[in-house]
């Protein structure tokens, strides 16, 4: 198995904007001469996450159970928010909107996310206040249409991903219209668990599935993010093997898809690194 690596790192798509929140929030933290600048910074940093079951902390509320329980406070965006608070010396206020916040739980395709971004007043209000937005979405568009890796077909995947670039463009446009000019928007492009590549990598359709479906998905996200000066963290290819997606078993729960505490810590550190903060410092 290829050694896990921090993506090479991050696909940073923000050429003309402030790259990292570190340059915004950490200014003056150790410089007594910068009190005037420091006083102008927000006393509370609002962090908002939009995502699926990993953002919800699926399976972290106790022994792993396919029906739950969830613990959003132990999920990687919440860990990131707490770490950011420690680094910046400012309180963070974390809010998560995820696929499991409704009863019964509902998977959200990109089109459903876009409907909510247009109509959910609480979500919209939280985004308007945010200094940092974290987005992890897309995989449920595939799951709803094609099921799991055991039921995938090339034809279904190509069909499921064909509209994703347009849906991502709409999502990032709406988020961009809601947030402030200085808000940092970060997106993670990984949504495929390791069992997908393990099951399909030797199949004749695998090259076409990657080029005609998965890369359409990730390319659409990257293009939409670039148009809005967002940051994409390329976790889809972090294994270093082009035929291997997802995290190894040391980072996942028994289903091979949802992160365990080590996986959540890893992804929180990726967000910190995208911010220009060294999590090992």
What is the topology?
Layout: H1 22-25, H2 35-39, E1 44-51, H3 76-88, E2 91-98, H4 110-119, H5 121-129, E3 132-136, H6 139-146, H7 154-161, H8 164-178, E4 184-188, H9 194-200, H10 206-227, E5 231-233, H11 261-274
Parallel strand pairs: 1-2, 1-3, 3-4, 4-5
What does this structure look like?
With 281 residues, the chain is of the alpha/beta class. The protein has one domain: SGNH hydrolase (Rossmann fold). Helices cover 41% and strands 10% of the residues. The chain is built from 11 helices and 5 strands, in the order ααβαβααβαααβααβα. Strands 2-1-3-4-5 form a 5-stranded parallel beta sheet, sandwiched between helices. Strand 1 (44-51), helix 3 and strand 2 (91-98) form a beta-alpha-beta unit. The radius of gyration is 18 Å and the shape is globular.
Short description:
The chain has 281 residues and is an alpha/beta fold. It contains eleven helices and five strands.
H/E series, N to C? HHEHEHHEHHHEHHEH
Sketch the major β-sheet. Answer: 5 strands, parallel
β-strand percent reads 5-15%
How are the strands ordered across the major sheet? 2-1-3-4-5
Q: How many individual helices? A: 11
Overall 3D geometry? globular
Q: What portion of residues is helical?
A: 40-55%
The poorly predicted ranges are: 1-19, 26-34
CATH architecture: 3-Layer(aba) Sandwich
CATH superfamily: SGNH hydrolase
Mean pLDDT: 83
Structural class: alpha/beta
